[in-house]
Amino acid sequence: MKASVYLVGAGPGDADLITLKAVKALQAADVILIDDLVNRALLQHAPQARVVEVGKRGGCQSTPQHFINRLMISLAEQGQTVVRLKGGDPFLFGRGGEEMLALRAAGIPVETVPGISSGVAVPASIGIPVTHRAYTHGVSFITGHTQDGGSPDWQALVASGTTLVIYMGMKHLAEISRGLLDAGMPADMPAAAIQNGTLQQQRQVISTLAELSMAVHQQGLESPAIIVVGEVVRLADSAMLATALAAAA
Amino acid sequence: MKASVYLVGAGPGDADLITLKAVKALQAADVILIDDLVNRALLQHAPQARVVEVGKRGGCQSTPQHFINRLMISLAEQGQTVVRLKGGDPFLFGRGGEEMLALRAAGIPVETVPGISSGVAVPASIGIPVTHRAYTHGVSFITGHTQDGGSPDWQALVASGTTLVIYMGMKHLAEISRGLLDAGMPADMPAAAIQNGTLQQQRQVISTLAELSMAVHQQGLESPAIIVVGEVVRLADSAMLATALAAAA
């Protein structure tokens, strides 16, 4: 390990879904800046390290991004080996790109250690492959909202024919569903929402595009969750599907 | 570990980019069915296991999918613990979905162990985050060709505004570039091709959409490679970019 700062993906939740390279980075860390959603069991790999919590606590705001950037730079300049431990993958909606650029601008050697993203692993946990060549030629990973507050181009995304995996979409699920329906996606398109995927407390609702929002509300599912919309949702494990439907009845 | 067959993602190449869960599956394996592109160093985790090569060898055809399916079922029925070790993630263009359905139909308990997909980790290896909220609201992972021989809907994909990550696209790179240009993507859109990503022998070309195909040809880059098209390619590490440009001159 040769960098000063490692942007490390902690994976989707399950503490075994972290890479060997990430474990090596944790073992080499002097200090770990950890996000709220990261499984604390991962800290077992770094008993020597000081841990700084930089995620949301209680109802409070999360630590501002510029503060995290400055802290990483300051620690690195003091000669510390820093691990920035982030849920999922640092470069797939993890703001790792922003942190990398801040570190690079400050002349700090930085290395990224990829993580398993929830968008693939969480659907997989109930038997949904995000691609299957009989159903789709690809998959799009999007957030429910763009930085400027606008919506993604639902029309284009529906026309693309890709499976849609939506991160951070629970608060705007009704709006997202309406956007997809208005863009011409069939009301009976299979859709799923999966909360706390790969953890013991995982819960899911499998439904249709038109009914997912209501079903999620009825079941009381909340963030953090992954939403999947597409024909591949039909491939969900039938035993789990039966359980989910029975719970919904 | 309780399943009979584990569909395990081996990651993008670097032997350290495999998960702890995958290592546990390898340690528990009686037999491993391994793909051609998987790093053989991973077999160190399973000295006890019999290894069956099921990928392409030399110029030969790869083992037919139905043969692999039958072999997994047969071994599982003999009471063997089977690991099906696949490059990247089993469910992101890994045909893991097809294998899962075949096993499920035969009543064989199957579990998927996600892997780091090349589409995220390989761009990351040269400092390209596939998403960055200042540039895009998402990323689409697609193959250059659909199962029926047709092309993806380039128009829709361009309109989606997502970063495009193209798997298995090197043979049809000129055609893919033309499709994207015809769909209205700017000729000077940054684009990269990265061969053998995360391995010692990694090579990359960073160029523009209009010139990538020629640059790849001139540099002699070949499969396996990941193609990335989008504004985020601008974020590639400047040191590596300088190296790539000097090599291209």
Structural class of chain A: alpha/beta
Number of helices of chain A: 8
CATH third-tier fold name of the largest domain in chain A: Methyltransferase, Cobalt-precorrin-4 Transmethylase, Domain 2
Give the rounded overall mean pLDDT of chain A: 92
Number of domains of chain A: 2
Domain Tetrapyrrole methylase (chains A, B): 5-212
Organism (chains A, B): Pseudomethylobacillus aquaticus
GO biological process, one term (chains A, B): methylation
Pfam families (chains A, B): TP_methylase
Q: Would you kindly provide a written description of the structure presented here, covering whatever features stand out?
A:
The structure is a homodimer. The first copy, chain A, has about 250 residues and is an alpha/beta fold. Chain A has two domains: about 5-115, Tetrapyrrole methylase, N-terminal domain (Cobalt-precorrin-4 Transmethylase, domain 1); about 120-249, Tetrapyrrole methylase, C-terminal domain (Methyltransferase, Cobalt-precorrin-4 Transmethylase, Domain 2, 2-Layer Sandwich). Chain A is built from eight helices and ten strands. The first copy, chain A, has helices at about 20-30, 65-75, 95-105, 120-125, 155-160, 175-180, 210-220, 240-249; strands spanning about 5-10, 30-35, 50-55, 80-85, 110-115, 140-145, 165, 190-195, 205-210, 225-230. In chain A, the strands form two sheets. In chain A, strands 3-2-4-1-5 form a five-stranded parallel β-sheet, with helices on both faces. In chain A, α6 packs antiparallel against α7. The longest helix of chain A is centred in the N-terminal third of the chain and has 13 residues, at about 65-75. The radius of gyration of chain A is 19 Å and the shape is elongated. At the A-B interface, α1, α3, α4, β6 and α5 of A face α1, α3, α4, β6 and α5 of B. β6 of chain A pairs antiparallel with β6 (about 140-145) of chain B, so a sheet runs across the interface.
